[in-house]
Each structure stands twice: as C-alpha cells, then as structure tokens.
Fold each of these.
Amino acid sequence: MTQKAFKYRFYPTPEQETLLRRTLGCTRLVYNRALAARTEAWYERQERVGYTQTSTLLTDWKKQDDLDFLNEVSCVPLQQGLRHLQTAFSNFFAGRAQYPNFKKKRNGGSAEFTKSAFKWRDGKLFLAKSLEPLSIRWSRAIPEGVEPSTVTVKLSPSGRWTVSLLVDTLIEPLSESPNVVGVDLGITSLIALSTGEKVANPKGFKAKRAKLRKVQKALSRKQKGSNNRYKARLKVAKVHAEISDARQDFLHKLTTRLVRENQTIAVEDLAVKNMVKNRKLSLAISDASWGELVRQLEYKCDWYGRTLIKIDRWFPSSKRCGNCGHIVDKLPLNIREWNCPNCGTCHDRDINAAKNILAAGLAVKVCGANVRPDRHKSDGSCYEAERSKK
C-alpha cells in the first residue's frame, strides 16, 4: 500500500469560509506562539521545549480570556500545527532545513484534519463544526473503497481554496519496458535525451515577466494598509499562481511520459542550491525547476516500478567524448558543439552528455561503480545512487 494525495479545488459557502479562515488564523497563532516560546526558552534558559510542553502551553492558552476564541475551532488542526513545528525542529537539528520561520497571514495558510475531525460519507466531506459538505470540484476520482486518512485544507495567497485527501491505495506497476534513457538537464533545452531528442524549456517565468512587473509596480504605488493595496497584492499573487500552475503542469506531463516510456532513467545529481548562487544564471536555473523535475521522477519511478539512477555531480558528462572516452580540459558554456581532439568526432554538447550519463548509469546498475572520496578530484568516475524496483 502506498500513501497518495489527491488535490482538488473547492468553493466554500460564506459560513464555511468564515469558519475556515478562523481555523487557519488560530492554527497560525498557535504555531507562532509555540515557536516563540521554544526560541525564547533556548536563548534565555538554554532549555529545549518539545511537542509535549507546547501541547501543555496550548491547554493553558485556551483558558486565557484573551485567547478564548481558540475554543471556537476544532482542536485537531491546532495540535497538528504543533506536530508540524516539532517536525520542522527535527529537520533543523538534523541539518536538513533551516530554522523554522513565523507564519504570515498574507501567505494564506493550511489546516490539517485527522479522522477525528472530519467525516467521509457517500463521497462527501464534512469538516468539524461544519454542517454542510465541502463543494469540491472532483477533477478526478479517488480509488474505490478507500477513505481519506488525513484532510488538508489550504488557502493560497491568491485566494484559492484547495483540499488534499491522503489515502492508502495500491498502485499497480507499469509493464516492463525495454527502453533506457539518459537525461541531461539544461536551460535552453530543459532536457536532452540520449535518444537524440531535446525538449524545449517553456520558461514559464519569462512568459509572464512583463505582466508580473506591471502588477508589482501597481502594488508598490498603493498605500500600505489600504484596501486597494490588498486587491493589488491579490493580483500579484494570481500572476505567481499562473506561473506555478503552468510550470507544474508541464513538469508532470514530461516526467510521466519519461516514466511510462523507459524502464531505467539516469540523471545527474545536481547541487541546484549551490548553482543558483551564480547571479547570471540563478533566475534561469530557478525557472527551469531541475530539483522539482528530479523529485517527480523519484517518486513516480518508486510508484510504477521503474529504476532511477543518479550520477555523481562531478562526472564529466559534457567534457567526455562518448566515442573514445577522451576528456577535454575546458568546455565553456557558450560552446554547444565541439570536436574531439583525439578521435575527431563532432558532438552536440547536450546529446553527448545525455549519452555519457546513460552509459555511466548502466555501469552503476550492472556492476556498481567506485565512490569518489571526499575532497578528491574527480577522475570521471560515478557513484551508485539507484532506486531499484520494489
């Protein structure tokens, strides 16, 4: 069984919207107060406060006169917010994330409901303290015979309401395919495949940049705290939502196609976080969303029984001749085609890199490869980071 989330848009009634906004506000308040309490305890008394202590603080807050409104919403989202804060601190102490930030109202918000805080009846969803079901736009059907284990309601900065239903379902693996492919990530071409195909980069941000600039200039002219500024902020958020939706739609279609057509997919393990520090390329790299593309490939390969192999980021895929194996010393980014000085083969930079990535990936899959020691210069080897079929 695999946990899978189904996300839908819904349109709340005025009464439901009032209740949901109040719930989001209370969840945000509890989260921020707990974060402030944990931060203060550490800096003033060198004391670590965990989930149990913040849960006790929540009980005390509900008894205060100025926080009596916390009792008007379901207690489950408040407790889930404290659990999410505990997870955020666990990731911080493990070095996987930065220190947790305070939540802001203008970013919308979310509230998580477990089974005790909602009812699933005849395909309709009833949240706690609400008598009417949510008016959900069922863009796709959830698997038959399953019930959600967790429901997450989210309000985006653009004012869009969405609900995510987390269910336990059995995902059938795809039939085995004889195809294997190497994928080279780029900017002009989002990906180049070892088959010789190139997929153009849609550049979603660049397409909306003029429109975004216009609404952002209008926002900057509005007086802070005014209703006109609030409406201008919504327009900016909607443009950002358009960019995000177009990017996500393209990436999902592309990754689904790659997973359906190929049994083994080899990609580079790029350090995108470090690459965006290049001021000249940071915008283009962020717009390409390489990290999101690889993330989607990872979980889709895991779902459908495919194999994803990550090649060491220092593997010279572009500078290595796919015909004789010769590695050139330098290959600037502006050179898109080059001739091998050893065998004279003419290479397309991206296609050659994709073929080398595939060859290295197959070597990892079949016989393994040496791990490059830390702080040692790369000699063209690769390392194994394979997600095998389960």
Amino acid sequence: MDHRDILIDAARRPVDSARQVLDGIGPEVLNQMPDGEHSSIAWLIWHAARQQDAQLAELSGGRQVWLEQGWAQRLGVHRAVEEIGFGDSPAEVATVRVTDPALLGDYLQAVVARVVDHVEGLSPADLDDVVDVRWDPPVTRGVRIVSIIDDAVAHVAQAAYLRGLLENWRIGY
C-alpha cells in the first residue's frame, strides 16, 4: 500500500463516522452541552473540521476552506478565523450552535477533501520535511498530517460517545 493511500483512508474515516453521528439528530441534542460545561456534539464536529482546516492551510500555504467557501455564514457560526477551538471555555463552546447537522458534516467533508488533495501530491520524501521547529523533536509534514487526522478522529469519537449518552444511540458499523 502506498503512503498516500494510508493517509487518505485515515483522513476520510471521520467523515463517515460524523455522518452517522449527525444522521437524524435534532438541534437540541446537537447543541446540548452536558452540565452546561462540556462540549456539544456540534462543537466537537466543528472543531474536528476547524483544526484540520487551519492546520492544513498553514501546512500547505493555502487558504482555509472556512473562509474560501463561506462556512461561517453557512453554518451560522461567527468566530474569528484564528478561533478553531483549542482552549475554548464553556462560553466559547456555547457560541458554536448549528441548526443544520448535515451542513456540519458537509464542512468536515470539504476540509477532508482538501486534506486528500494535499496528500495526493506528496512524495515519501515530502513527509520528512520539517514543518515546525517549536517542538523537540521538530515536527515533520507526515507527523503533522497524522496529528490533525488523529485529532479529528478523537473528536468525532467523542461526539459519537456523547450522542450515545444523550439518546442511548449507537454508531452502526
């Protein structure tokens, strides 16, 4: 299997899982913050997409899908472009309220399509390029790609778990 095939398969998996989580969900469950403190399903899936979008734009030197395709307006989420969810307080989490769950899945899919496009153009040597020297050891392109995919997988899995708790729902594999 080619290195690109592995990364592309991994990148696409959160989209499939998110679609299942969002299928048939009502806005009250989608936006519910357990105990008024914890992340909602909407925030978890929004963040899964936003962090990939922002980090990939930085990695590739391109523009964020969030800006390029007008996702803030389409989703009705008005956060500054640099606000992607890392370190959000409960009040900031509460600002991510979405009325159309399918649109949230569409945003994640649009971001993952951009990830796939980026990965398709990479050689094995490109994965070894150092892209961030703020860490020890420095972060390579391959490690960063795995990191943004891993973060998306984790947050979509949290969304699935949360829907299960709120509605006694199970993801269907």
Amino acid sequence: MKIDRKLIISLTATLLFIIYLAWGDGPAHNETAQRAGYGYMGFVKEMLSFLPMMFLLIGVFEVWVPREIVERHVGAGAGLVAILWVILLAMLQAGPLYGAFPVAAALSKKGCAARYVFTYLGAFSVMKLPMLSFEISFLGWRFSLVRLMLTLPVFIIIGFVMGRSHRCISE
C-alpha cells in the first residue's frame, strides 16, 4: 500500500492545529486567536455531530434503494416530474449545505441525471423547510413566496445548462 506523504503532512498539521487550539497557550495567544479557536472548534463539533448520521443514511440509501428506481424517477429520461422529486428531497432534508454534497454524490452514483443533481443542490440551498419557516416568521410569507418564485426557476435553468456540460459519476 502506497502512503501519500501530502495526506500525512496535512493531517498532521491539522491535528497539531487542533491540539494548539485546545491547549490555548502559545506565542500567538490573544483574544482574537482565542475567538478563532472557539469558532473552529465549534465548527468541528458541529461536523462531528452531523456527518456520521448523514453518512449512515447515505449508506442505507446506497444499499436499500435500487439503481433502477433512481434512474426511473430522476434519471436522464425522467422528464419534468424529476424536478419535483429533487425539490421535494431538497425541501425535506435538514442540515447545513455541506450535508447536501454526499447526497448529491449518492444520487449521481445511482443514475440521477446531472441536471437534476444541480437542481437539487440549488433547491437545497434555498428551500429547506426549517429555513423557510424561519424566513416566513421574520420576513413574511409574501417575501418568501416572491423569493422562491425568482430563485427556483433560476436553479432549474442552471441545472439544465450545467447538465449539458457535465456528466454524473454513473453516466
């Protein structure tokens, strides 16, 4: 087995940085560095609490959902109903945006067309139900409806344009 030196160096540097932040004493220790360290550690805790469950669900998806079902509903020949499927998936999924990329990769491996993967990523960034409810409570349903009517067609068009120039993993 070949050992990748760059990977080992980057992992070592990251580990040393985390240890330095946890320890908290050093020549660069001041209030700004301490706030940066707390922010970084908060982000690491968030990722460690979110990603394992996300990868578990993706593993279940890859094992239990047959490729034929994904190809039939969101494959290259699926039609316009596929847009509704990926928008529904994007709306029902919760979590930060980096949680959408493993799902997009799993969809791609299962035979989802590239245009629908890009549409899913765009819809995920603006249409999650928790985000919509928060937005409606602060900005009103009219604002949210207008924003959705303006952004959703743009993401669908971008998905089709990018789908012409990109291929998914399975294509």
Amino acid sequence: MRLLHTSDWHLGRAFHRVNMLGAQAEFISHLVATVRERAVDAVVVSGDVYDRAVPPLAAVELFDDALHRLADQGTPTVMISGNHDSARRLGVGAGLIGRAGIHLRTDPGACATPVLIPDATGDVAFYGLPYLEPALVKDEFGVSKPGHEAVLAAAMDRVRADLAERPAGTRSVVLAHAFVTGGEASDSERDITVGGVAAVPSGVFDGVDYVALGHLHGSQVISERARYSGSPLPYSFSEADHRKSMWLVDLDAHGFAAAERVDCPVPRPLARIRGDLADLLARPDLTAHEESWVEATLTDPVRPDDPMARLAERFPHTLSLAFDPQRAPEDPDVSYAQRLKGRDDQQIAEDFVTHVRGAGPDERERAVLREALDAVRIDDTRREVAR
C-alpha cells in the first residue's frame, strides 16, 4: 500500500501581509495530481487543516473543493484535527463524508476505532489521534495529572489494545498531532506547552508500523517509522531553509518498507538578509534574492531614513523589516525585545520576579507561575473551541 502523508495546510493563513489562498489552492492541485500520478492508495492529513477555529469562507470553500477532488479520485483519505482546528466544526458531517471515502477523525474518544483499508495482503488499520489538549481530555482518558505524554500514552494504549484483537498481519498507521522529542520547531507553530513541557517521547508510539505526525512545520524524520511531513507552504521566515514536501510511504506485507519526499510547489523563495542598509543595496551576492520574499535586518547604528522604501527598490517583495543596531551589550539603548529574544514565557516571568524582588522564585513559586501560564493558554484554547 502506498500512502501520501501531509499535514498543517493552515488554510486561510497569510504570510505576513501576503494572501496565501492562491498558493494553497495550487498545493491542493499538486496533491491531487500526485495521488493520481504516483498511484497513491490512501492519503493521510495529520491536522491543522485550517489556521483557526473559525476559518474564513474562502478557506472553507477551498477545503470543500479539496474533499470533492480527493473523493473523485476514489482514493481513501484520513484526516485528523490539529490544535488550530475546531474539532467539532471540522468533524461536522463526518459520517456522511465517510461514505465518500473521506474519513474525518476529530473525536478523542474514537481514537481506537480505525479506518480499515485493504490491499492485496490484508487490512491496514488507520488510527486517527486528533490533537489532545490535556486539560480537556484528561477525564476521557482517565489520567490524574494532565500532560501531553500522559494523554497520548493512554490513547496509544487503546490503539494497541484494539490492534491486538485484529487478525495477525494487520498493519497499522497512526495519525497524531503533537510535538515529539527530537523534532525541530519553527516560529510559526502555536505553543502547546503544558506544565513546562511541550514534547513527548517517540516511544509513546511504539508498536505500530508508521506514525504520520503533524504540528511541526519542517519535514523531518524522528525515526524510520515516525515522520513529520511539515507544512506544504512557509508561514514564517524561520522556515527559509525548509524544503517543503510530503512523504510518499510504502507499506509491504510486513509493515513499513520505504519513504520518499515529494516536493511541494512554493510560490516564492524566502530570504533572510542582514547588514547595514547601504551594504544590502550594493552587495552583488544578494542578486539571487531580488525576487524572493525578504526579511531584512538592518544593523546601522542609527536608523536610516525611509528604509523600507529604499529596500523595496532592490527587493520589491520585502515583507519584514527589523533593526538590530550593533551596540555593546551594556548599552542602555539595547531594546527590550532583544533582551527577551530566545526566552520563553516562563523564563520571562521568573526574570521579572528576580528583577522586582532581588531573588529568583523557588520551586513552589515556579510551579505557581507555570500553572498560571498554563491556565491562560488553556482558557484561550477553550475560547477558540467555543467560538
């Protein structure tokens, strides 16, 4: 059986001020063409179909078009909801849509009910684990202390129990939307940290033939049988070095056999350039970036006049402009943003306590800060779901 693994479409999302809907439509056409030309037997989409819980109408229309075109191919498709999706909205009509071969898995309680797709050597069981927000699903999975590892481990216990009841030789594929240890994040994923921990160990998924991961936007290999497809399009300049692709995965009678990357069409390359303005406007080695989407960081000690307009004369697709003047670290003019660069919310809160009180927080106080930050993020998630 040949699978096409993709994820993180983020339909409706813009790249800075650029509307990406046309590029997203081009990707859908490429996906459908790949299914047809590479004799794909099943498509798996590992979450974040939309960019937000209530997507714009144009994004919904594009998703509807994608469903119709995949159904017309006669190729079964399994999709799960991600942390950006509203699971309830994405799952509306799942029973009816399933009759057309498009299987939406958005209910955490149904994670151990597989989609069975046969091939010449037997069944392949596809288990869809939608994004599991620990605070919202802990009761469903009977875990006392909510955390990503605990709820995913409980979900996978159910998967393995179901698989054990299947006929010998049944192969298995798990779709999951999570941050797995060993994965490399970018700036465009939403933080899913709970209790100071975002990642789960890859061993949680032991016992299945392939794990189709979503959430991280870079295509990467966690292990031979566990991979992120990454997003098909870039959504931040931190993805400038990404190769946007999907995984073409072959299963034989014994399980995982091979995987091949299939490149996705990217509307325009990304470039991150840095230096003083005069240098950037003159350097011959930057000619290759004149048609790229550009993030420019100016290092002039004094902010130059009208820098964006001047950059746009050479780099007309400049989308982001930042300033990082070359100054000594002790210089009082070093910006607050620069001092916070690379620090997470927990570290910033702890630094504030240290600044105000003269001593850092103890373990009990750190736990209180963690709980407060988790509560804010969970409340945001609940509001998104309720909208």
